[in-house]
Design a protein that fits this description.
Length: about 110
């Protein structure tokens, strides 16, 4: 089994980035539609139909992308909680076991 080593704030930082990316992605989709608008009269056939379909569903596409990234963010929050709880539980267990251990019994006596 592999080991995944991460800093204490790694998932928090990643979560902030994901949340910001969701907002930015919605803006970028709208900018893409605005930038492509001058081309809309130049499409014919299936290209025009695909472009018109994309424009018609742009708001839903933005909502779906944001929801998807929102789910990723929720997962990141859950992972952060799980890692934090696991880390604290491990520290508490180690402290409890060390306080009840008899370290004197493990000492080697020398001499005659």
């Amino acid at each position: 089994m592999g080991r995944w080593d991460h800093g204490q704030d790694t998932l928090v930082t990643l979560g902030r980035g994901t949340q910001g990316s969701a907002q930015e992605l919605g803006t970028l989709v709208k900018q893409l539609i605005a930038a492509a608008e001058p081309l809309s009269g130049k499409f014919n056939g299936s290209g025009k139909a695909a472009f018109d379909n994309f424009k018609a569903h742009a708001d839903q596409i933005t909502v779906d992308l944001s929801a998807g990234l929102g789910s990723v963010h929720t997962g990141q929050i859950g992972m952060e909680k799980a890692f934090s709880m696991g880390d604290q539980t491990m520290a508490d267990d180690a402290q409890s076991r060390m306080s009840s251990a008899n370290f004197d019994a493990a000492k080697f006596k020398t001499g005659a």
